[in-house]
Specification:
43% of the residues lie in helices and 14% in strands. With 391 residues, it is of the alpha/beta class. The strands form three sheets. A seven-stranded mixed sheet has the order 2-8-7-6-5-3-4, with helices on both faces. Helix 9 links the parallel strand 5 and strand 6. The longest helix is centred in the C-terminal third of the chain and has 23 residues. The protein starts with a helix and ends in a 5-residue tail after the last helix. Bound molecules: pyridoxal-5'-phosphate.
Amino acid sequence: MSRTAHAGAQRLGRIPPYLFAEIDRKVQEKKRAGVDVISLGIGDPDLPTPKRIVSVLQEAAADPANHRYPSYFGLAELREAIAGWYRERFNVDLDASSEILPTLGSKDGISHVPLALVDPGDVVLAPDPGYTVYATGAIMAGADPYVMPLTIENDWLPDLDAIPSDVADRARLMWLNYPNNPTAAVAGREFLARAVDFCRLHEIVLCHDAPYSEIAFDGYRPLSLFEIPGAREVGLEFHSLSKTFNMTGWRIGWVCGRADLVGLIGQLKTNIDSGIFQAVQWAAIEALNGGEEETHAACEIYARRHRLVADTLNTIGWNIKPPRATFYVWAPVPAGYDSIGFAGHVLDEVGVNITPGVGFGVHGEGYFRLSVTAPDARLEEAMTRLRTLKL
Ligand SMILES: Cc1ncc(COP(=O)(O)O)c(C=O)c1O
């Protein structure tokens, strides 16, 4: 009997405990005790997938042609639809056969990229606070994540000048994510151009995770990395249908960019999975070809909810503005609390579940994240309860 097999792989031991599982356990406990918990903890749209997309899935699911193994690299029609969407949305031309690879959601692409592109001992630059998969994906590949702190002083952008040159020289990947989870920050052209220059100089693959590119308000249009000159030479961009079309459960997204890098990820994925259920791919084609009306309508709902949350928090002592993008509110915890303590207090006192900032990395300490993806009535009830919160 091997001791290591029973203890689990060492690489799993390097992954920090998943705070969200612990929070979920606490929420379940409350629910069992009869508390009507309102969850604002997860970024999972409450709005349904548009009907036209569901109808295509229903029809495609009944067609035996879609019951067999799908292609590893996605239907040509899907890659064409993605290329068309990119052209329409960002005025960027991608080659559908070599520069686009559909994935089982962007998490699939993000977690597997280090396995395809980095070796043990390489450095992966990851923002903190940030989506935890950037760092855990690096650890799974035996690489060393190096934290790029995001701070309010720097508008939640990493300070590229603060990365030591020996670290930059060992780095093989840099993760950026704008519009950002959890901070709701956005990145302008100037910052993205500096990141492209930095990555070109140090021969780093710049991975831009952009699942919130369509969740933006008041006319703001987030950029694609590939709108930046030179980005095509160093970059990969990750997109998802999850947030844009309320399709988190469907598991479909894509990675695109430099053909040789996309090819390496494709090579890895042929050994790991067997493609995306073809009926889901046909539904995704319908989603991407069907225009932006539903997404804009959803954004209006999120914008209204953001105003409600900002108004509520501002009447009980905060001073925040609704964000320009994402469905997240990122706000400081009151004096006297750390982020886990404050989230626990809110859950215990008013039965509302929010996410402690430290769950996104040590630099998220002192903040909490709240998602406006709860039905209007539940969000309103949560705000009514928050107004009674004793701080
Ligand atoms: C920044 C970021 N990247 C990726 C994902 C994963 O999305 P998907 O459903 O496409 O795997 C999420 C989901 O919350 C996210 O917040």
